[in-house]
Amino acid sequence: MLVLTRKLGESIAIDDHIKIRVVQIKGKQVRLGIEAPKDTKIHREEVYLAIQEQNQQSSQISSDQTRNLSKILKIKEND
Hints:
The chain contains 2 helices and 3 strands. By secondary structure, it is an alpha+beta fold. The protein folds into 2 domains: 1-38, no CATH class; 43-79, no CATH class. Strands 1-2-3 form a 3-stranded antiparallel β-sheet, with no helix packed on it. The longest helix is centred in the last third of the chain and has 16 residues, at 63-78. It starts with 10 loop residues before the first strand and ends with a helix.
């Protein structure tokens, strides 16, 4: 892990496309501004972990469950 010290208003560059700037320091909290291409996904770690967990759970759905869901959706479309 690379650990850097930055002051208010200073930034960190990652490659040519991402810049992280210290926007505010208030007590124990640091507010960061992130400039990155729109197609770059940026999440707080707890949100990222929740997304990973949901992806893991959805990948474990059995073939039978998928077929049953498909049948239900077809029935609803025909109503």
